[in-house]
Amino acid sequence: MTISIQSAFATDPDVSRILPYGGQVGQQVEVTFSGNRLEDAVEIVTFKSGLEITEVTAPEDKKGREVKAKIKVLDDCDLGPHRLRVRTKSGLSEVVTFFVGTLPVVEEKEPNTEFTAPQAIENKVTVHGRIDNEDVDYFTVTANKGDRLSVEVEGLRLGTEFAGSNFFDPYIAILNESRFELAACDDHALTYQDGFASLIVPEDGTYYIEIRDASYGGHGAAYYRLHIGDFPRPTGTVPSGGQPGETLNVKFYGDVAGEFEQQVTLPTQKELKFGYHPVQNGSVAQTHNRFWISSLPNVIEVEPNEQREQATLISIPSAANGILLSNEDVDYFKMEMKKDQQVDLDVVARRVRSSIDSVINVYNDKGGRLAGDDDRKRPDSWVRFKAPADGTYFFQVTDQLGNGGPDFHYRVEVTPVEPAMEITTNDISRYVQPDVEVPQGRRFAILASIKRENFGGAVQFIADNLPAGIRLESPESWSSTGVVPLMFHVDENVELDSYLASVVGKWTNPNNDKQVLTAPLKQELLQVRGQNNDYVWVENFDVMPVTVTEKVPFDVQIIEPKVPIVRGGVMNLKVVAQRDEGFDEEIRVLVLQNAPGVNSSRSVKIEKGQTEALIPLNAAGNAAIQESAICVTATARVGNGNITINSPFTMLRVAEKYMNLKYNTIAVEQGSPVDLPIEIENLTAFEGPAKVKLIGLPNKTTTVEKEITKETTQLVFPITTEAESPVGEHKNLFCQITVIENGEEIVHNIGTGRMRINKPAPVIVAKPKEEPKPEEKKPEAPKPKVLSRIEQLRLQQEALRNQAN
To answer: Could you tell me if 631 and 650 are in contact, meaning their C-beta atoms sit under 8 angstroms apart?
Structure first.
């Protein structure tokens, strides 16, 4: 039911929590949605049947911070989580979770933080409470010997959004009156970082239930739903899946009262998450056991199969189902294959909430290992195997750490290599998924990523469940790529409402039109983000609410270029806004998805009161030569929040450049002129002259602008330098060539040329010839001394003595 409330254009509605977080089948509960900008709320959007919204009101005194709704839980409502969103006249809030159970709900009452002063409650109830910082909540119930006492908690799974380590990680325990823990649990694969505990009551008496944060944290948003009763709590299932519409005989493992069997009927259509709530003696498990739905027939392991010689035989294709019940358990299966036959072996384990960290290995009949994998599917295993010869091949399933137990079940899907496809929506900003909120008479576009396996080619998109006046446009130019824009158009007369659209991608084999592959568009909404931005809790959807909102006072469109952008060239994309009278807010515009090899500025806005802006584009030298449908995203503040719309698609053509240039390397001295000759190879004829500018010249150098025609084969730029022109090699010269076509500019940037500037060589001055110096007169040798007769006799006697010695 939709109740109209006066609109104040409360854009960007935000819901941070609801209270209470759930209700009982067959009961009505008043739920308060808390957040911001909720004053024009008109509806609570649900994603599946079972909840009847009987009233939606926004109390005026809360000033848009609160919405109240009465929710009736119908008798046939599915148990477990139901995703809700508040729709206003101008938008859609975040997802919040409302849990449905079978037990009556009671509120926690403080003080109950001491073991000696617990809150006494009846057995078979759900407690709705909160853990504040360092808080511990105690409850007591009476139970008789031999009864099964089970406790489960929904805490992290409530999805209260927190970033970092401050999310609620519940710890639960069952204690006796002596404060001895009989059963306890922090985390379990079945319930993620919530937990459960179960036991057979050892004697009549009072038993204590403890709940706290695992690290004694807590905060004002750490709410929980604590289920206490005698319900079954199995942890493992064999088989763990089946075909759509099939009724399975399932053996449930891990319940404290022992194994049991029940029939489980699978839905006729494949679901993202299908679960079954086991029932015994009228008591229902509050958390379901997951089952995998596929078209493959089941094969159940036949024990013993711990040895290769004991392997269970399977056919191809089929799904092998089993369980590792002990630490020593390993399971073997065998299959007959032909030479070069290929199969994919996909271990589905954690995806059906098993505790196994699976490892799969493939062997030949001699025991030689041929292939294997551990965590390809994080943490499930997957391997592709090609038979080297005709024969029997074996695959083995084990746990990475050699563990086993009643919750170590698995399913191995063995299939031929076939086309497969997965389609997901892209974040609009980090950790933020898009909401399709389309004002009347406008458009809104999102991006979807296509993961193709074993095929290529075009994928077409179809949207079901949309009324007349809303249509989905998927441009053909993007259909063969990995990221595809999807635009929702809403006519002006479409009623304000929210419609759950099933968007499906479809591929048809161009060589065999009978081979058709389809996949839903899936959306992953991050609910809890941990340390280092780990994805702690994510909600998956395969339907998308398309919300029609009130008209907005602006629209935008691209003026389609009459000319292409060429490789290595630039272009200014003109965007025009249509404004209603009185609306003059700035409008931020950016290209939703650039053509391959083309980049665009992401900081452009149409200024206040203006109606036009230019978005600079530049194309790489190897940009894909093709036509691409592009649009711009436009965001403006309307009322007290932001509104985002998209322009219609416009075709942008990328073409080869019209000419090639060959530069000659030149050198010049400072202060001298030089010519730069460039040879032109014309590739595409153009009319009229084209202007050519030489770009990238260093400081203190100049040249002139030139013109060329389609006949020009050589271009010469006269370059003038100055005495202070920078010395060195300048490598970034390029020509900016502007061709006029259809009255618009086609701008080429073609390079690169080189120019070297040298210092002038030094001037050599001839030295004057030097006159030879006159030779200096050598002094005459001294005349010998004239000796006296006595001196002569003395010299003779001295000579005779020397001879005698």
So the answer is: yes
